[in-house]
Structure formats: C-alpha cells, structure tokens
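Many introductory courses stop at the sequence. We go one step further.
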Amino acid sequence: MTNTLLNDEIVAQVREAFTGLVEPVAVLFFGRKQGCEYCEDTLQLVREVTDLSDKLSLKTYDLDDDAEIARKYHVDKAPGLVLAGEIGGEVIDYGIRYAGIPSGHEFTSLINDLLIVSSRDSGLSQEARAFLADLQSPVHLQVFVTPSCPYCPHAVVLAHQMALESPHVQAEMVEAIEFPELADRFGVSGVPQTTINHGAGTVVGAVPEMHLVEEIRTALGTPVS
C-alpha cells in the first residue's frame, strides 16, 4: 500500500467524529480474488477508517473461500461490508450491509453508521420504533446509490437505522454503478431508490422515516392500525 485514500483533513474530521464511539464495532469485509474491480480500494478504505479508533476492528473474508461465513451474514456481492456489534469477541449482526465501495457521499453513510452501531441506538422516532417493535415479517431493504448523489446517505442511514432497531430488517446499500444488473432488475432510474422485499415496494428519493414505514407496511400488506 503506497498511497492513502484519506487525506489529513478527512482523517482529522473522522477522528473527531469517532470521539463519539461508545461500544466496539466490527467491520467485516468480503472480497473476491477475480472480477472485483473495487475490492482492493474498499479494503484499503475500511482499513484506514478502522485504524482511527481502538473501538473499531476489521475482519477480512473471501466471498468464495469463506462462503459459509458469507451466507451467515447474508453477503452475496463483492466488495461487501457488514457493520456489526462486538461484545467480548462475539460479533453481533444487526443486518447492516454495504454492497460496493462507500466512496463519495457514501463515505458519510459509513461514518454515521459506525457511530450509530457503536451507540446501539437507532435514533429513530418513537412512532417508527413502535412499528418496528411490532414487526413480525422479514423486511429486506436495498438502497441503490451512486457516489455522487448527495441525497443518498439519508436513505442509506435510515434503512440501516431500521435494521439496527429490528431483528426482522436486513438493509443493504447497493452501489448501482458496480451492480448494474441488479439495478436494472429493479428498474433503478434515479437514486436513491429503496427496494422493499425484492420489488414488493419501491421508494424513490430521500424520504422521512414514517414515509418509509408506510411503504414497508404497504409492501407487507399490513393494514394501518
């Protein structure tokens, strides 16, 4: 590794942000030896970030060689990231995932997510928490983004907040340029786009949390109480 991806100014800003870290966070990286254009840069990026606090740790895996571990964490794309809690060396999966490099505006999502996971508090409103507390059906959220989209981090972090709040929610940022076939499958023409349960519902744009709650409710066929 010759050059760093984070300049001194960004390093200083991230170090300052990380003074807010509370509990340990494990970042799980999943790469692939062949056909993964952004794996090397993604690994370097998360290594530089996790090196900035002793509350952060990095674990590296190969999507093929460590297929069983990848299945355990529901990772099927490379580069893939899982942001998890860590207690006494045990990894606690909250269903927070990234598919693709969190670069550009998505670097903000990564830093905010690390702080949220470390706090073990979603920060959602009581109304949203109540809905998620009553949730019994699995919810799969995929938030399609591009690095140049300034509105995408809001949608990504909101989906990840919901995953942290409920064990029934899995939420994944998907970098649309890196995974064009998936973006085409769900008709992504603008970002952010949040796809609910593999197309049962779709939300375009960065929306308030209760808007997303209502769209999830509709996708599940759940009547408003």
